[in-house]
Specification:
heterodimer, A: 2 domains, 12 helices, B: 141 residues, 6 helices, 17% strand
């Protein structure tokens, strides 16, 4: 497959328009490229929301990595799959960043981050950097800082970056905004075939992976998933204002806007003989590469990027506005309104209107 | 409502690791759980970690404290190696604590090496949590 040159002549395989002049590399970028300790410390400041200046400085140096999201139910083998994929890419000489997300306890605020247990094969390799993140109250299967953590790894020079979500059920679909290629991992023997036709997580798959393919029940699982995919129309998935939407694929089918057909790949991530021809990992990396080429050839990459930035900026704006607004209202006022709502004296929407009236007129609807 | 607005205090991050060859990690898991319940983020790496793996994980995860659980009696070999690698990787300010079966006569020399706390069988969970909180606070300054 070659990159189509008719429409997007100035776009290289990574989707980056060459810059007219190369800006000088800022110190933070040099630091995180040279020192893993500096990268680790920057990631901590990002997570603690203390790295606004550094993120602004490194942003022009991002956009080179291919970002692969890995999601699926708990126990389907996401960590093991990331481990196997990372080994494969390392064998090909590519550097790998891994962001592994696990849930924060809603009660204590603490978390057990255990994804490294399955990634011990990657220890001792300076071409791999693994960082575990806790969700810290964010819904959707990711930590709030995930996209900025990925950007720092991208600027640090990692070529493939995996994001492993929390064990996701059905609606944790944020990964599709952050990743370029989303793998949804299934395993034989989980749920019946109605699960497969429910809305949600399966719809965000760019590639469906059926892991634990040495389980005899794998044929049933693959059949169920294939039936689900065949029912679907050829649609194109875009994100608009932070919401994923499917649009009917264009009628005039030109090579550039051919809709993506989600492949199903069977893998055995914990195969005892690594690089065996039948563990499916090689097939999966091929499909990831085919999808990467598709994204750029079809123009989907640019469209998705725009849509996801649209969503991210809207989210950040919402957070900033909320913070500014709450700074203008005393906690007591909020508390007394909550008490009135609890007493059925006021409904929640009217409570919000009452709060808006108290602040700057520009906030009013 | 303050969740999105306020900046939270910095979370304490702890690596709980089991170096060496003994295969019992129930104690390490109980400690990990207790630290989680105290509101900390605990990176748990599983059994049979080499000192190299432990220090590498501590570096990438930028933890405040490393907790080693050693039941095999190899603590006088493993601990100095971990400390040596921590220094080589610039983790001089990261605190190291030890749990497991540690004979009393080894405690002074381990403390001299730079281990900040040693907790054997019968140590109370409150003491461990309190100690981690205290030394993590020193690290974060």
């Amino acid at each position: 497959m070659s990159i189509s040159s008719s429409r997007e002549t100035s776009v290289d395989t990574q989707g980056n328009t060459p810059l007219p002049s190369v800006p000088p590399t800022p110190p933070i970028v040099e630091a995180i490229r040279a020192s893993r300790r500096d990268l680790a410390r920057l990631l901590s400041r990002i997570v603690e929301n203390q790295a606004g200046r550094e993120l602004a400085a490194l942003y022009p140096f991002t956009g080179h990595a291919h970002i692969v999201g890995v999601t699926g139910s708990p126990g389907t083998g996401k960590s093991s799959l990331v481990n196997a994929l990372a080994r494969h890419y390392r064998a090909q000489g590519q550097t790998v960043g891994i962001v592994a997300v696990d849930p924060t306890s809603p009660f204590s605020g603490g978390a057990i981050l255990g994804d490294r247990i399955r990634m011990r094969d990657l220890a001792g390799d300076s071409g791999v950097f693994i960082r575990s993140l806790a969700t810290r109250g964010a819904l959707g299967g990711l930590a709030a800082a995930t996209s900025d953590v990925v950007r720092a790894m991208d600027a640090a020079g990692f070529e493939i970056i995996f994001i492993e979500t929390v064990g996701a059920g059905q609606s944790e679909v944020d990964i599709a905004h952050t990743a370029h290629t989303t793998l949804v991992v299934e395993a034989p023997g989980l749920g019946d075939d109605v699960q497969a036709i429910k809305a949600g997580i399966l719809e965000i798959a760019d590639i469906l992976v059926v892991n634990k393919a040495d389980n005899p029940a794998v044929e049933n699982t693959v059949r169920g998933l294939r039936a689900m995919l065949d029912l679907g129309h050829r649609v194109e998935r875009i994100a608009h204002h932070g919401r994923l939407m499917s649009v009917q694929a264009s009628e005039e089918v030109q090579p550039e806007n051919l809709a993506w057909q989600t492949p199903i790949v069977q893998t055995i991530a914990t195969s005892s003989t690594p690089d065996a021809e039948n563990d499916g990992i090689g097939d999966l990396t091929k499909q990831i590469e085919v999808h990467r080429i598709y994204l750029h050839e079809s123009g989907t990459f640019a469209r998705r990027q725009r849509a996801s930035l649209d969503g991210e900026i809207a989210d950040r704006l919402r957070d900033a506005l909320l913070a500014r607004l709450l700074a203008q209202i005393s906690a007591d006022e909020v508390e007394s309104l909550i008490a009135r709502v609890a007493d059925r004296d006021l409904d929640p929407a009217s409570a919000v209107s009452a709060l808006l009236e108290k602040v700057d007129g520009s906030f009013q609807p | 409502m303050s969740k999105q607005a306020g900046t939270q205090e910095k979370k304490i991050r702890v690596l709980v690791a089991k170096p060496g060859l003994d295969g019992h990690d129930r104690g390490a898991k109980i400690i990990a759980r207790a630290l989680r319940d105290a509101g900390m983020e605990v990176i748990y790496t599983g059994l049979r970690q080499t000192p190299e793996m432990i220090v590498e994980a501590a570096l990438q995860e930028d933890v405040d404290v490393i907790g080693l659980s050693i039941l095999s009696g190899a603590h006088m070999a493993l601990t100095p190696r971990v400390i040596e690698l921590m220094k080589a990787n610039g983790l001089n300010d990261v605190k190291l604590i030890l749990g497991g079966i540690i004979p009393d006569e080894d405690i002074p020399s381990l403390e001299k090496m730079g281990v900040s706390g040693i907790f054997g069988p019968g140590a109370s969970m409150e003491n461990i949590v309190e100690h981690v909180r205290k030394v993590a606070g020193e690290h974060q300054q």
